[in-house]
Design brief:
The protein is of the alpha/beta class. It folds into five domains: 173 residues, P-loop containing nucleotide triphosphate hydrolases (Rossmann fold, 3-Layer(aba) Sandwich), CATH 3.40.50; 69 residues, Helicase, Ruva Protein, domain 3, CATH 1.10.8.60; 104 residues, Zinc Finger, Delta Prime, domain 3, CATH 1.20.272.10; 84 residues, GMP Synthetase, Chain A, domain 3 (2-Layer Sandwich); 38 residues, no CATH class. 49% of the residues lie in helices and 7% in strands. The protein contains 26 helices and ten strands. It has a five-stranded parallel beta sheet, covered by helices on one side. Helix 23 links the parallel strand 9 and strand 10. The longest helix is centred in the C-terminal third of the chain and has 20 residues.
């Protein structure tokens, strides 16, 4: 490089700037605004030809003013991202830690020979690189100043760098200059002293794109750089930069810019541009920018262009509606109203809210995403974190209210249901209908305690019920079994327990008879050595002989056994079944469970602990 006669522009930049004369920015131009390897502003010469009467005070020519003046009407359009590129470190938003480190390094004269700027795109890496170039080369207004974190902006080096015409500050876009040949030019040029600046600076953007050979070529120079040379690498993918290079660089990680700062910044830019903008519109743009000032300014550019087209010649006004349309977003207020319907079991309101949003052009999928985003913010708010950063006052209040009202379990359940709904909407032939159905289902379930809590409530209820109910599995001698309040004839004072007899019979190996005794023998009278019984009408086997034999073996005595007249007490098994049915009914009639069954028609209550602890008492057959 440097062979070109047009020497004050880097070779890859020449001829690019004529496009800027267009009034409206093209998408490519917006994109190019920050990615372009050009310093600051276009060189003045081509502009003078393009614009008949350019205002002399171009923003970059007066970088000391923190608030660039709105451009004159007859000036060529400059995209906001380029126009409002930070010209001082104090204008660089969201990077305080990095600026502080850099300031310390300059103050202590402990500057590395090479810097590495990392961070997501549009976060200010190349802006920072240029600011470092200024900081190191500024000579101050009187021409005697040294390196400073606060470059004056008026000295010749400052102005030349800001205007992108400083001969000793060379910027290379590694994305288009990846090879060893491009690097070789640098290596050659490094040997010569700078022309006028204190330091000869090489800014290599998208450094991760350099080839392995290119890095190897650079390595020698990075190991022993001439004292007058500084390298600044900027990259989004620091893990692709060789470790040998990393170890020779002072690294600065640029942070994603918080939405709140972007919001303020964009408000500031709008004020300078004389553009009125809704607060909600600013918030949407700040959120959509995802931490990148450049991306946010590009969106703002488009929003202003849209607003201009619609305006009747009066002042430009960017409305929230327009931005929402542009970004395909749901209105936050409408979103909250919809969410509120979800949680307050208001199906009419819910369906109306969905219809409204849909007719405004909001995609059903975006509705689901909006509800999920709110759920996420509620969950974060419950942890006391800054979930409401960048939110409007109404949103802050609403989220805080929900965070208090809902249990953590409910929020997670809500998330699960919405996630499921989201997937359904995505694949459904009619996304609107799918969204309505999914949201209705969420609404019905939203009132419910979460499954864990429900289970615990049911268990507690069951345990209370069991403690209060008579012993059903092992009725004590003489006790009256009254499951479900059904009248049961009392057993006339047996002096021996039937369950114990059943156990003994089984222990003697007469399992079949034992089972019959439990299942089918209804006792009319039971005393030691004396049994009067009956069986259910459906049970026709004659078991008298079996019973006599079994009782003889179990007790060692002959029994007086006879089938008697009358109903008899229910068999042991019948009592267990009655008790279980009663408990199931009791559980079923619990208001909570009734709510659950109403919400999920056809649902069944299943005792998950049945197998674990063998308790049969409740809910098995519900
Ligand atoms: Zn200066």
């Amino acid at each position: 490089m440097g062979d070109s006669p047009d020497d004050d522009l880097p070779p890859w930049e020449t001829g690019e700037d004529e496009e800027e004369a267009q009034k409206q920015p093209s998408a490519a131009e917006l994109e190019a605004a920050g990615q372009s390897a050009l310093f600051g502003d276009p060189a003045p010469a081509p502009l003078a030809e393009a614009a008949p009467a350019p205002a002399p005070a171009v923003v970059a020519a007066a970088p000391t003013s923190p608030a660039p003046a709105p451009q004159a009407a007859n000036q060529p359009y400059r995209v906001l991202a380029r126009k409002y590129r930070s010209q001082t470190f104090s204008e660089l938003i969201g990077q305080d830690a990095m600026v502080q480190t850099l300031a310390n390094a300059i103050k202590r004269q402990r500057l590395a020979h090479a810097f590495l700027m990392t961070g997501i795109r549009g976060v200010g890496k190349t802006s920072t690189a240029r600011l470092i170039a200024k900081a190191l080369n500024c000579v101050g207004p009187d021409g005697h100043g040294g390196p400073t974190i606060d470059p004056c902006g008026v000295c010749e080096p400052c102005r030349a760098i800001a205007e992108g015409r400083h001969i000793d500050v060379i910027e290379m876009d590694a994305a288009s200059h990846t090879g060893i040949d491009d690097v070789r030019e640098i290596i050659e040029a490094v040997r010569y002293a700078s022309v006028s600046a204190r330091y000869k600076m090489y800014i290599i953007d998208e450094a991760h794109m350099l080839s392995k050979q290119a890095w190897n070529g650079l390595l020698k120079t990075l190991e022993e750089p001439p004292p007058h040379v500084k390298f600044i690498f900027a990259t989004t993918e620091v893990d692709k930069v060789p470790v040998t290079v990393l170890s020779r660089c002072q690294r600065f990680d640029l942070r994603r810019i918080p939405a709140e700062l972007l919001h303020q910044h964009f408000a500031h830019v709008c004020a300078l541009e004389g553009v009125a903008i809704d607060e909600d519109a600013l918030a949407m743009i700040a959120a959509a920018a995802e931490g990148s000032a450049r991306d946010g300014l590009s969106i703002l550019d488009q929003a202003i262009a849209h607003a201009d087209m619609e305006s009747d010649g009066t002042a430009t006004h960017v409305t929230a509606r327009k931005v929402r349309e542009m970004l395909g977003l749901a209105d936050k207020g409408a979103q909250r109203a919809l969410f509120d319907c979800l949680l307050s079991a208001n199906p009419q309101g819910l369906l109306a809210a969905v219809e409204d949003q849909f007719s405004l052009g909001v995609e059903p999928l975006a509705l689901m995403r909006g509800a999920m985003e709110l759920t996420h913010r509620i969950a974060v708010a419950q942890l006391g974190e800054g979930a409401t950063q960048g939110a409007s006052e109404e949103e802050r209040l609403a989220i805080a209210g929900w965070a208090q009202r809902l249990s953590a379990g409910q929020v997670h359940r809500l998330w699960q249901l919405l996630l499921k709904g989201h997937d359904e909407v995505r694949t459904a032939p009619d996304p609107l209908v799918a969204a309505q159905m999914a949201l209705l289902r969420v609404m019905h379930a939203a009132d419910m305690p979460d499954p864990g809590k429900l289970e615990k409530l049911l268990k507690d209820a069951a345990e209370r019920g069991l403690a209060a109910a008579p012993q059903v599995t092992a009725p004590a001698a003489g006790s009256t079994v009254t499951a479900t309040g059904a009248t049961t004839p009392s057993m006339p004072s047996p002096d021996i327990e039937w369950t114990i007899l059943c156990d003994r019979v089984e222990q003697e190996g007469m399992l079949r008879v034992g089972q019959i005794m439990r299942d089918h023998v209804r006792i009319i009278e039971l005393r030691h050595g004396h049994l009067r019984y009956t069986t259910p009408p459906a049970f026709r086997d004659d078991i008298m002989a079996d019973l006599k034999e079994a009782l003889l073996r179990a007790t060692g005595e002959r029994w007086d056994v006879a089938k008697g007249a009358g109903e008899g007490a229910p068999s042991l098994t019948e009592r267990e079944e009655m008790a279980a049915a009663a408990e199931a009914e009791r559980v079923r009639s619990h208001p909570l469970v009734r709510a659950a069954l109403d919400a999920f028609p056809g649902a069944e209550i299943v005792d998950e602990n049945q197998l674990a602890d063998g308790r049969k008492a409740w809910s098995r057959r519900a």
